[in-house]
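hiii so um. not sure if this is the right channel but i have a protein structure encoded as tokens and i wanna go backwards to a sequence. like what aa goes where. can anyone help
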């Protein structure tokens, strides 16, 4: 007669091991992805001037509030909802009876942000999110009965949730599919763009989208190449620029990624469309604030606001760019390149 064996516990899924104090892989940082359960870990990361994995820290919040002057009862639009940090600050000041519309083309992050804001008590009467690129702002306002906005914000930076997640194809640190699309279900990936482009077009793209000084040289190597992952692309760039100082070489890596991201998502086309539509989207006396992160974006915003001043569409506009404070840059290095411009719609 056999001896009965003790009952074995049911198998269970094990949580990823948190690799010491500073886990490197995005998927290992589960404490950072769960701030409610691990607040001390998240606060320690923020105190160190970094952004927790899966999160995003809004940039120049006070400067934007000073420009937009949100007041209770007004109607506003956040054209780039992202993680919802700016939207939260605006919503708090628009209540009671105010309303904010949030736009975001990212089908992965937008539902998460909407849930966060709902969990904070913002109802559908106060806040409504649309999965839409900001170029579609006039159509969204038409759904609001043609109502014009008292304030409009557009933060043109890429959210940390996208930059840090290797699966999205933006990361320079960890390998992932070379994608870079804000909406992974629409358009062509960066890998497809590189493989099916010619040298001349790619060189022009690198110049226009990122002011890349080695555009011609890199285009010869990259155009037509079969790069399936982010680190394959990084490797090609570094190999071609091997004789350059490391600092200059790494800047080129970042500029190439920026140029491809802009092209894949047609960011300049969307921005130009938004800038043309803004005057008709703003109520008389309405305010607009736009955060840019590189010269190609800033040139377009500056030119549009200046033309609006000359034509009388805008009553006033920023004479100089507003930059983040030294304190903010120390606490959040990703704010360093931010430039804020604003304009006020004329009363006519």
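sure thing!! here u go:
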């Amino acid at each position: 007669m056999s001896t009965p064996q003790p009952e074995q516990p049911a198998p269970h899924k094990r949580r990823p091991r948190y690799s010491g104090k500073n886990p490197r892989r995005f998927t290992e940082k589960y404490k950072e992805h769960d701030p409610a359960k691990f607040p001390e870990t998240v606060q320690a990361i923020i105190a160190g001037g970094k952004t927790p994995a899966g999160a995003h820290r809004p940039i120049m919040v006070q400067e934007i509030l000073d420009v937009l002057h949100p007041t209770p009862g007004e109607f506003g639009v956040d054209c780039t909802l992202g993680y919802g940090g700016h939207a939260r600050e605006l919503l708090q000041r628009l209540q009671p009876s105010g309303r904010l519309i949030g736009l975001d083309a990212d089908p992965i992050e937008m539902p998460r942000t909407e849930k966060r804001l709902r969990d904070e008590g913002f109802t559908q009467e106060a806040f409504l999110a649309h999965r839409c690129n900001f170029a579609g702002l006039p159509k969204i306002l038409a759904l609001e009965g043609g109502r014009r906005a008292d304030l409009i914000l557009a933060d043109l930076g890429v959210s940390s949730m996208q930059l840090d997640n290797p699966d999205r194809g933006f990361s320079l640190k960890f390998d992932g599919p070379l994608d870079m699309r804000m909406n992974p279900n629409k358009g062509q990936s960066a890998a497809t763009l590189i493989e099916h482009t010619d040298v001349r077009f790619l060189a022009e793209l690198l110049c226009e989208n990122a002011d890349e000084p080695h555009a011609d040289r890199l285009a010869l190597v990259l155009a037509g190449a079969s790069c399936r992952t982010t680190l394959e692309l990084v490797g090609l760039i570094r190999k071609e620029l091997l004789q350059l100082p490391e600092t200059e070489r790494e800047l080129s890596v970042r500029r190439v990624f920026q140029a491809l991201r802009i092209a894949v998502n047609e960011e300049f086309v969307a921005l130009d469309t938004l800038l043309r539509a803004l005057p008709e989207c703003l109520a008389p006396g309405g305010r607009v604030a736009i955060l840019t992160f590189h010269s190609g974006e800033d040139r377009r915003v500056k030119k549009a606001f200046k033309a609006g001043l000359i034509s009388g569409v805008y009553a006033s506009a920023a004479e100089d760019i507003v930059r983040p404070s030294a304190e903010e840059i120390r606490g959040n290095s990703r704010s360093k390149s931010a430039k804020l411009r604003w304009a006020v719609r004329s009363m006519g």
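oh and The domain at 61-160+267-345 is CATH 3.40.50.150 (Rossmann fold).
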